[in-house]
Amino acid sequence: MKKITRGFAKIIYNILSFFDRWLITPITKLILRITDFFKKNSKTVERLLNKKSTLLVISLLLAFCTFLIIDSKSNVTIDQYAEVLYKQKVIPTYNEELYVVEGLPKTVDITLIGQKRHIFLAKQTPSNGVTVDLTGLKPGNHKVTLKYSQKLKSVDYRLDPSTVTVTIYEKVSQTRTLTYDILHKDSLDSKLYIKSVELNRSNVIIKGAEYKLKKVATVKALVDVNNLSNPKAGKIELKDVPLVAYDNNGEVVDVEIVPSTVDATLTVTSPSKKVNINVVPKGELAFGKAIKSITPNITFVTVYGDEKAISNIQSIDVPIDVKGLENDKTYNITLTKPNGITEISDKTISIKVALDVSVSKEFSDIHIETENLNEKYIVQAMNREDSSVTVVVKGSKGIVDNVSSANIKAYIDLENYGVGEHEVEVKVKGDDLKLSYTSKTKKVKVRITEK
């Protein structure tokens, strides 16, 4: 123990001797020499200090030294600068095959603080970006710190946000049936029609947190018409159609879809058909007036659209308002496209209506027909008078004279009528819409029974 103490004391002694020899002794000698110099030359120094020029030089030297010191300090303060790097991508590290991470921002803002030249260098210096290491974290909530590696140490940085709370879920997968939606249909040439869409696969795999997969109601391929280059009738191939998952409310569900895109084959057709124009007068003319003629500038149009809609359409009705009309008139009407029709060859039509003096003529024993009777029922008139009616036809004399009973139909609409006795309104219509048809008997009695 004594040997250790002596050794330690010897080390302390050597250290003190080193400082005494090389630091304390030289400084002491320097001070003594300066003191001796001033003692020996005190009168000379006093004379110099009494001179104004000496004092002026000393003042200038002290002022210059003070300026240098303050300037060096102020430069450090004044040259401080801050610049924000917006939306810097966050790169997480974790096992993406096993886990799903929620709550982690995709980007953050980085504020760089320092002198301008240093910030400029920092921006040019490559870095590993903003990272967060989630390796080893289990499912659950975790508070993690974002890191930004910058080799230039003269620049400070701050992240916004710098810490976040993330939730880690186990990743599960399911197979779902793939459907499609067609976007921007209105951008397609109105004479073209997308008859069908075939995808190169019918099923996809969705991956994510279990609670997210339960929300997915459908997965759709979004076929965008705007991505078709110069579409024409025929088959069109569309590559890399994106897939999106939706919930029951049509909201997008953020899950991984494998594959993320598919290919689609579109069958584009241009179905068309020529149909007649059928002008339908609406309303009652002025008293004593009748329609002598209706002359449209076109009698048929070509319609384009859905094949089913085209097959069901035989004519296009064009209503014109003749209520209270007293004189001849020309109507300019914009044609309305029926359901399923995307294009009509003519957009407008001009219709000339000529009036005449109204005459009337009666047609008796017009048999009453039935419409919309349920197939499980049969109907009978309560008496002979309820089986036929007299119809009054009014119009221009030249037209009325050419009308026969065969051109007139009297009927009763039995839709929603069941078993029993009923009083039903009589309706009348005729082949020529320029004429008016009225039954002298307004209602008839019928009996409905089961077959």
From TrEMBL:
Pfam families: YbbR. InterPro entries: c-di-AMP_regulator, YbbR. The keyword Transmembrane helix applies. The chain crosses the membrane at residues 53-70. The keyword Transmembrane applies. Keywords: Membrane, Transmembrane, Transmembrane helix. This is YbbR family protein.
